[in-house]
Amino acid sequence: MASPASQSSSDAWQLAVQQYLSSLPDAQKAAFKVPANAGMCLDMIIQAQGRKKGFTRLMELVKPLIDPLKRFEAAIDVIIQTHGAIASPIWGPLRMAITMASDHFKTLESLAMILYRVVGSLERFTNYETLFKTNPAVQKAIGALYSDLIDFCTRVVQFHSRSSLRAMVTSFDKDFRDVSEHINFHSAEIDWVANAANIEESQRARQLEQETRHGKAAHIIILFPAFDIPLVFVHSLQPAHYLSYAKAHILPSPNAKQCSTLALALERTG
After folding, report:
1. What's the CA gap between 19 and 81, in Å, rounded?
2. How far apart are CA 161 and CA 75, in angstroms?
3. pLDDT tens, 222-237?
């Protein structure tokens, strides 16, 4: 079950996904939600390769995208399953789009270009899966990018569901440009929110490190008077020198044996 924050951040792009799917007839909409995998999609391209020229180059374009797309599907799968009931959030829509355009090299080439842009938007951040799960702003931006992919797949299906005469007198180029512009916008949005999230995470990590370091120094300062060392002298040391001073002048002392807490603290930091 998604958290309230995650559910709230996903509402807008989930509604967009449902809107794109609702533009399809029931049979095609159901086909989008059927389980699928990368192998099925590649098999359809291989079959088309035997019928048409140029598909060998298409396979070369698509193969490097397989692992990044699997990673993307794994990142968004739980939320998509919770809200949209799409069994295979990436490969289901792609299989349907490839099926409808299997004899149209130019459309499939456009699909490959869209996939490259989607993958490129994500791979700039090695930790985008974690950010997607924990940061509502990142989830919203990446969700919008996913909705662009669904938009493109539904456009492919709609375009190639037309009669052959209508397909001859119309062009898919405008659909490609429209979705490309949306991807460019959402890619820039991902850059902004992911960078902001990483900066925030780094600041929290540095703060925790400082608090931990200061806590160790304070612990040693409290124990120093047990060895009759002037506290004013200890305060004159820089924080980075607390442990090195204690190890050099206190731990070797026979009196240190009487304070197991200090000895243990110094050994753990050593």
Report:
1. 17
2. 31
3. 444 444 444 444 444 4
